[in-house]
Design a protein that fits this description.
Blueprint (H helix, E strand, L loop, with lengths): L1 E5 L4 H12 L3 E6 L10 E6 L5 H11 L3 E4 L11 H20 L7 E5 L24 H14 L7 E6 L2 E2 L8 H10 L4 E4 L5 E3 L1 E2 H12 L8 E4 L4 E3 H12 L4 E4 L11 E2 L4 H6 L9 H11 L3
Parallel strand pairs: 1-2, 1-4, 2-3, 4-5, 5-6, 6-11, 7-10, 8-13, 9-14
Antiparallel strand pairs: 9-12
Helix pairs in contact: 1-6, 2-3, 3-4, 5-7, 7-9
Length: 302
């Protein structure tokens, strides 16, 4: 079995390449620039931009993957270049699906990574896949638009859409919240500036997330469906700070910087994993957030 991962050089892509490699896949990747670090599990990485449909078609024809996992995206909500967000997340995704649909051998599954941000500013309750989307920022709008665009290919391609909630782990950029906190503690810095301490997020471990992706690729009943990827438990930033202090033994001052508080901040994101669990043939145990933070603090630089 051959798997092709777009965005293989990114945080999730590296973990997914390892997960698929351990499961016996031949792993190939697409990246828009040469990876800064070796990706041990990958057989070959092709340099290709999502705006180049001809180059994408060439890669797909050469690899002839059994599974395509589309992770390449502008994934930072506060990314300043709005045009790039839409060009990459929407048009780039369409270019990929068009290239796949024209290939001489269609894959058995095409997994598209959307985002739980499409649910928007829901203040209470558990979000399941039937919750009406209400995107509150350009990143979320671009991901929802990608989902709608993908429906145009549902009769031609075996598409699975996933909506991951927040997740973290070793290798994630410090521009994301939890790695920022972890790296602060690893440096034993005395002060950290953060935004709203009362926002609540459903955090997962990246190792769990890629495990879910792998299992969905091999689940025929998942074709044509949309799944939340989540833990089903939300933590406030205050909860996270308490865990990090407890694990590290390092105390520090927290200052709320108004510049870090976004006006369209999603107050709570808590997902239901019921549909995902029902679709999979085996239960995948959740890695508790406390253990994820310990892994990041003790075993690697985030």
């Amino acid at each position: 079995m051959k798997a092709l991962i777009t965005g293989i050089a990114g945080f999730t892509g590296r973990h997914l390449a390892y997960e698929l490699g351990q499961a016996g896949y031949e792993v190939f990747g697409v990246a828009h620039k040469s990876p800064e670090k070796v990706i041990p599990a990958s057989k070959s990485v092709y340099l290709c931009d999502l705006d180049n449909t001809a180059a994408l078609s060439h890669v797909i024809e050469k690899v002839q993957p059994d599974a395509v996992i589309h992770l390449a995206a502008i994934a930072f909500v506060a990314h300043g270049d709005i045009e790039t967000i839409y060009r990459t997340n929407l048009i780039g995704s369409r270019n990929l699906l068009e290239a796949i649909s024209r290939s001489s051998k269609l894959p058995a599954s095409v997994l598209l990574a959307s985002s739980a941000n499409v649910y928007g500013n829901t203040s209470e309750g558990i979000l399941d896949e039937s919750t009406p989307p209400a995107p509150a920022n350009d990143y979320a709008v671009s991901k929802l638009a990608m989902e709608y665009m993908a429906r145009l290919y549902k009769d031609r391609l075996p598409i699975i859409i996933v909506r991951p909630f927040n997740y973290t782990g070793i290798g994630q950029s410090e521009s994301f919240l939890l790695p920022k906190i972890v790296n602060h503690v690893r440096r034993r810095a005395p002060v950290i500036e953060l935004g709203n301490l009362d926002v609540a997020r459903d955090f997962s471990d990246v190792r769990n997330v890629v495990r879910f992706y792998r299992h969905l690729l091999g689940t025929p009943a998942a074709i044509g469906e949309t799944f939340n990827i989540c833990s089903g438990q939300a933590y406030t930033l205050r909860d996270v700070l308490h865990m990090v202090r407890e694990i590290s033994g390092h105390d520090f001052e927290v200052r709320v910087n108004p510049a870090f508080v976004r006006s369209n901040e999603v107050k709570i994101l808590l997902g239901s994993r019921a549909k995902l669990d029902a679709a999979l043939t085996e239960r995948i145990p959740e890695i508790p957030l406390h253990e994820t933070l310990r892994w990041m603090l003790e075993e690697g630089v985030s």
